[in-house]
Design a protein that fits this description.
single chain, mainly alpha, 3-stranded antiparallel β-sheet, two-stranded antiparallel sheet, 13 helices, 61% helix, flat
Length: 356
């Protein structure tokens, strides 16, 4: 082997050693910087998008369309169209980017005033049917109505602004917390809507000062008759079911009916939303009211087997009191069941006497 060949082999070995040292030195840095990150698949991205709920788009649906204790989700997700996001409410594009032809980027008209005026129109129609109003009285009541509507709309629109453009993912904990707060805020707005013209509203105060005694008596009579008719219809429909379940005789039927009609709850007399006018709600309200009646006449009228079944239904009604009250079917909660007095040696305990 000549000297030239030996030199070339030594130089090649040295070169390979140098390259190996350089690779070893750079190895940790390359491993740290050049990690391979897998992009989420299209299916995963679509699944995540399906769990995104646009609270602003669903605010009005849950306040004005679903007034009971239920919750609905209506077309609230952002829809990607040619590189821009649009939010569609009631068929109108209300949020968006870009300048696509035909897009309507004007803010939507708030439905708060329209819904509140619809409630006011029902109330005024009932009053006009119950008593004759002068032009001056009608004007004063309408002014009071408009004042209450402006106050109500300001509170509702403030809450609506809080959720405008807010999207939550129900798959993560923060999204669930935000959704829970959203439900509480909407429920508060529902209570405001139900009591819009009640209590300390300007309309309620103006009604007393604007109408005379005969007109107010006419309104009370109309309300009492409408409420009694609605309650009797609920009781009759529920008793048909009880007759089939328990096999009640006519005498037993009459005892239960008298107990229910004697404890008529303060039903709302305005038009009810579909969620407030269903058989399941009415039956449980009847069971709740029956649970507050005196149990002794009921128990004496039915057999032991019938009493066990009837007790289960009454307990069911009591357990659903909170749910019933949240449905907006009542102007005020039904009276609670009176706690039975304990007997001592067959005698009722004497009332406590305050010390002098």
């Amino acid at each position: 082997m000549d000297a030239l060949t030996v030199g070339r082999r030594r130089w090649g070995a040295a070169w390979r050693a140098a390259v190996g040292l350089a690779v070893c030195a750079a190895g940790p840095a390359l491993a740290e910087d050049d990690r391979v990150v897998e992009e989420p698949s299209a299916a995963q991205a679509q699944a995540d998008q399906q769990h995104l709920i646009d609270l602003g788009a669903n605010f009005d649906a849950n306040l004005f369309e679903q007034q009971g204790n239920g919750w609905v989700l209506r077309g609230g997700n952002g829809i990607q169209v040619q590189g821009r996001v649009r939010m569609i409410v009631n068929g109108r594009v209300v949020l968006g980017g870009g300048n696509a032809a035909g897009a309507d980027d004007r803010p939507p008209e708030s439905p708060t005033h329209a819904r509140a005026r619809a409630v006011a129109a029902q109330r005024l129609e009932r009053i006009a049917a119950a008593c004759e109003l002068t032009d001056r009285q009608q004007l004063q009541l309408r002014l009071a109505v408009e004042s209450d509507i402006r106050r109500f709309a300001a509170a509702i629109d403030t809450m609506r602004t809080k959720y405008a453009g807010v999207q939550v993912n129900l798959n993560d904990q923060e999204g669930q917390k935000t959704w829970h707060q959203f439900q509480q805020d909407v429920e508060q707005c529902r209570r405001l809507l139900r009591g819009l013209f009640e209590g300390d509203s300007l309309f309620a105060r103006s009604l007393v000062t604007t109408l005379d005694a005969a007109q107010l008596a006419g309104i009370e009579t109309e309300t009492r008759e409408r409420r009694a008719f609605r309650w009797r219809a609920m009781v009759s429909a529920t008793l048909v079911r009880l007759d089939d379940m328990l096999g009640l005789t006519q005498a037993q039927h009459d005892v239960v009916e008298r107990a229910l009609l004697a404890r008529q709850p303060a039903l709302r007399v305005d038009a009810l939303a579909p969620e407030q006018d269903n058989t399941h709600l009415h039956q449980n309200l009847v069971y709740l009211v029956l649970s507050g009646s005196d149990p002794e006449p009921l128990r004496a009228a039915v057999s032991e087997r019938q009493w066990r079944s009837l007790s289960l239904l009454m307990n069911q009604g009591k357990s659903m009191r909170s749910w019933i009250e949240q449905q907006g079917i009542l102007d005020e909660p039904p009276p609670a069941a009176a706690a039975p007095q304990r007997r001592m040696n067959g005698r009722r305990p004497k009332a406590a006497v305050a010390p002098e």
